[in-house]
Design a protein that fits this description.
about 800 residues; alpha/beta; Calcium-transporting ATPase, cytoplasmic transduction domain A; Calcium-transporting ATPase, transmembrane domain; 4 domains; eight-stranded mixed beta sheet; translocase; ATPase_P-typ_TM_dom_sf; ATP binding; transmembrane helix
């Protein structure tokens, strides 16, 4: 059998097919869901945090105190938001598929028939034609100029010739020619399905905000139990001891007081505010054609300090365009060469590079060629022969060869000129002319070839690539280019967009050891001939070296690396598998959107850091109050509903607006440490202030309702001051926000319906004076704490000098 013929074979019989189907050796493959619905529900509902809130909520309902159970709304909202974002991630992963062909062509019982992809079996004989997608891994047994595009799988941009004995991978596309191949791996064992299965492993994006908040919740959840026992025991003794409280029914109020102390300790609103800030950021980015598939990715890109870029589809648009012609011989020697280039550009079987010649060379010879040898990626040239002049008078007679200079002229006579052009990032071909006829059977070059012209092509560079890379450089974000293409070509393109990359590193020389690999990655910026597994290994090595890594790409060959990266970014024009595993998708493919994503992430993380200090201060003082009032056997001075109102005025409502305000401060690691460095001392001051007030009021004989009214007023005043301190500088919308909260405070204490619901009474002069005195001392102490906190932050972190936390 010659290379230009397809070998015939009867293929499998019906009985052999049935036997393989029965044995499970078919291409049928049902991919497991990335994560079950029940596991998502369990992870977001059946938590210790939710268990505590649910228990408190249920106790209040059983006691008939639904007015004090308002905190349950925040817990429900947190659970819903967390579940919804994980369901969205699951839906994207479940759609992931690399094989899109609805049918496959196989030879069975001596005839060619179409079957469903799932019905292909091991040892089936696939019949491959232009446009087909290979349904299973197979070995070529017959080839007639069979060429496959494996770029989405391997990253190689050129079509690959396949000869008998070569392997073809499932998911690749037949670009030209035809052939037959015997299936060697099917179903779950095939390349495409193995890649999809690995990419579908569920994982949430790494989020410092989320992990820090989870750490706080975990600590609080474990100390809630002992504190609850301490407080409940104290409240029972406040009502005369266990026996007296149980017989009189006062144990109900003791339980309510205990729940008030416990709920105040849990930063319910912080989780909700973080989710809302992420969601609003995602909506704002969606207006700029940026799809955020997981909310925490908005924050994640603000933390990135190294971004890996795939060349094709990211720096370049993925298309080749004509660059220039470089004549090497006088027109008298071969006057028809431009019309020959026009023929190459207009022939029906022209590849992507040759088609670029159609526009600059429109006048092709009218006479049909008498012989031709199609392009082959193995020999890297094609040839055509014309018999005489065309009607336009352009003499195209003779044999013409278009191909790689080093392949057409192995004697390197063109080495200097072609290498100089290639080093500038241009794809270079030579057009050569000879008088000897073409030998189509031998597919050999004519012996008398002379170079006529060099023709150069270039990849279309994205117009926004250079500006975006300059932004990352200015922001201190390192860049690595990793591509499946030639290292020198990739390096030249990197230089054209402003990167200092004298040479590219051939990935075939990369070490496998992660530590050694990380060292190479620190020394070089550009890497070529990178395989999909190497892309993933590069991301892993960088992460192990302490980097926060973003990865962009559009091909299936990028999917594993995008999935492994801290933040994966895909182009809308990319493969479905790549978009499914990415955290962020650029819907219009514009690389220039990434600075907007970074800015949005910085706004979220900087604002949530400010807001977190409000919530964590509350957690600290609530814990301190519970311990103090439990240890000194004092009645807890708040009802749950009163604490809910205080939270709304001093934390919840202002935090909602503060979390969404512009903030361009650069991200600096250590969010939780900085927040606690203010929250702990401030919370201690608030707890001591309330304890001193309650102790003094109790000694002065102030009644229970007035005690609670004064405690609520004191806590509201101090809380509003903490809000003011953390909102500085106070300008613009902040004045309106804080002013509105103060107006709310006046309304809470003056509207009869509200005061009745909150069980407030008019404070006496003695109570008012005590509240004023303790407030002034507490405010002074908080000012000192903030001053010391700012000095600590500036000493331990490097913020932009123009901004403050």
């Amino acid at each position: 059998m010659g290379a230009t013929e397809v070998e015939t074979s009867t293929g499998l019989t019906a009985a052999e097919v049935a036997e393989r189907v029965a044995d499970g050796r078919s291409n049928a493959f049902t991919q497991q869901s990335s994560r079950s619905v029940s596991s998502i529900v369990r992870a977001n509902v059946l938590t210790l945090f939710n268990g505590i809130i649910a228990a408190c909520f249920l106790v209040l309902l059983l006691l008939g105190r639904w007015q004090d159970a308002l905190f349950g709304i925040s817990a429900i909202a947190n659970t819903i938001i967390g579940s919804v974002q994980e369901f969205r991630a699951k839906a994207a992963l479940d759609k992931l598929a690399l094989l899109h062909a609805p049918h496959a062509r196989v030879r069975r019982d001596g005839s060619v028939r179409e079957v469903a992809v799932a019905e292909v079996v091991l040892d089936d004989r696939l019949v491959l034609r232009a446009g087909d997608q290979v349904p299973a891994d197979a070995r070529v047994v017959a080839s007639a100029h069979l060429q496959l595009d494996e770029s989405m799988l391997t990253g190689e941009s050129d079509a690959v010739d396949k000869a008998p004995g070569d392997e073809v991978l499932s998911g690749s596309i037949v670009m030209a020619g035809e052939g037959e191949a015997v299936v060697v791996r099917a179903g779950a064992d095939s390349f495409a399905n193995r890649l999809a299965a690995e990419a579908k492993k569920f994982s949430l994006v790494a989020s410092e905000l989320r992990s820090s908040i989870d750490r706080v919740l975990k600590v609080v959840s474990w100390i809630v139990g002992p504190v609850a026992l301490l407080v409940f025991n104290a409240q029972m003794f406040v009502f005369g001891g266990w026996e007296q409280a149980i017989s009189s029914g006062d144990w109900r109020q003791a339980a309510v007081n205990t729940i008030a102390a416990l709920v105040a300790m849990i930063p319910l609103g912080l989780v909700l505010m973080t989710s809302i800030a992420f969601a609003v950021g995602a909506v704002k980015l969606a207006r700029q054609q940026v799809l955020v598939q997981e909310l925490a990715a908005v924050e994640g890109l603000a933390r990135v300090d190294l971004i890996c870029l795939d060349k094709t589809g990211t720096l370049t648009e993925g298309s080749i365009v004509f660059d220039a012609e470089h004549p090497l011989a006088a027109d008298a020697a071969a006057p028809g060469w431009r019309s020959v280039l026009a023929w190459y550009g207009s022939e029906p079987d022209a590849n992507a590079t040759a088609r670029c010649l159609a526009e600059p060379y429109p006048e092709a010879p009218e006479a049909a060629p008498v012989a031709r040898i199609p392009f082959s990626s193995a020999r890297k040239w094609s040839a055509v022969e014309f018999a005489g002049s065309d009607a336009a008078g352009s003499d195209a007679a003779g044999s013409w060869v278009l191909g790689g200079p080093e392949m057409v002229f192995p004697d390197d006579r063109l080495a200097g000129a072609s290498r100089e052009l290639a080093a500038s990032g241009l794809r270079t071909l030579v057009l050569a002319h000879g008088s000897e006829p073409l030998d189509e059977a031998a597919e050999a070059l004519p012996a008398d070839l002379e170079p006529v012209a060099l023709v150069t092509f270039r990849e279309r560079i994205r117009p926004d690539a250079a500006e975006t890379l300059a932004y990352f450089a200015d922001q201190g974000v390192a860049v690595r280019i990793i591509s499946g293409d030639n290292p020198d070509t990739v390096a030249a393109i990197a230089r054209s967009v402003g990167l200092d990359a004298p040479t590219g590193f051939d990935a075939r020389q990369l070490p496998e050891d992660p530590v050694a690999l990380a060292e190479v990655l620190e020394r070089h910026l550009v890497f070529g001939r990178v395989t999909p597994q190497q892309k993933k290994a590069i991301v892993v090595a960088l992460k192990q070296a302490g980097r926060t890594v973003a990865m962009t790409g559009d091909g299936v060959n990028d999917a594993l690396a995008i999935k492994e990266a801290d933040i994966g970014i895909a182009m809308e024009s990319g493969a479905a598998a790549t978009k499914a595993v990415a955290r962020i998708v650029l819907l219009d493919g514009r690389f220039s959107h990434l600075p907007h994503v970074v800015a949005e992430g910085r706004q979220v993380i900087a604002n949530i850091e400010r807001v977190s200090m409000l919530f964590l201060t509350k957690t600290v003082y609530a814990t301190g109050l519970a311990v103090l009032f439990g240890a000194f056997i004092l009645e807890f001075p708040f009802l749950p509903r009163q604490l809910s109102v205080i939270d709304g005025l001093t934390i919840g409502l202002p935090a909602f607006f503060l979390a969404l305000m512009p903030n361009a401060r650069r991200y600096v690691p250590g969010f939780l440490r900085r927040s606690l460095s203010f929250a702990i001392p401030a919370g201690v001051v608030v707890a001591l202030a309330l304890f001193v007030y309650s102790w003094a009021a109790t000694r002065a004989g102030i009644g229970e309702q007035e005690l609670r009214t004064g405690s609520t007023l004191l806590l509201t005043i101090i809380g509003l001051w903490v809000l003011t301190v953390l909102s500085r500088p106070i300008d613009g919308w902040k004045i309106l926000i804080i002013g509105s909260m103060m107006v709310g405070l006046i309304l809470v204490y003056s509207v009869p319906l509200v005061t009745e619901f909150l069980m407030f009474v008019d404070p006496s002069v003695e109570t008012a004076a005590l509240v004023l005195l303790v407030s002034v001392v507490s405010i002074a102490a908080i000012e000192v704490i903030r001053f010391a906190h700012l000095r600590y932050v500036r000493r331990t972190a490097r913020f932009d000098p123009s901004t403050t936390p």
